[in-house]
Amino acid sequence: MNRIKLWDKEFEISLPYTEIHKAIKEMASNMKQDLEGKEVLFICILNGAFMFASELMKEMELTDAEISFLKLTSYVGSESSGVVKELIGLNEEVTGRTVVILEDIVDTGHTMQEVIEQFKHKGAKEVKIATLLYKPDALKVDVKLDYVGLEIPSDFIVGFGLDYNRRGRNFKDIYTLVKE
Ligand code: IMP
Ligand code: MG
Question: What is the 64 CA–ligand 2 centroid distance (Å)?
Answer without folding.
Answer: 25
